[in-house]
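[step 3/7] fold_predict: job queued, chain A
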Amino acid sequence: MKLKSVIMLCAMSLSSAAMAGSYQYGKVSELITEGDRVTFQLDTTNGIDIRDESCNGQTLNFVIDFNTKATAQIMYQTALESKRDGINIGVNGEGNCGIGGEFEQVSTIAR
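[step 4/7] structure written:
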């Protein structure tokens, strides 16, 4: 089994067991800065896409709010690097999709 497959299987196991929110693994395909928040989407074509029950089937937009997250700047930098360099990242959501069921607050991001 390839190392990437093992890592992805571990990520899926940990994400579904340790969190109630969405989990996606892929490259940032869209990133929008809006004042005190950033929204972004992941291309999960070759990754993982697990949705929280409160999220609908639309493209999931993760939200980093600079007013509520002490680690927002680091999360933003990680998302920005993924977009710029085409690096896969794993993103955990907090577990409640808002407005229309397609926006979820970021809990953690990892490379």
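[step 5/7] annotate
Helices lie at 3-18, 72-85.
Confidence is low (pLDDT under 50) at residues 3-18.
exit 0
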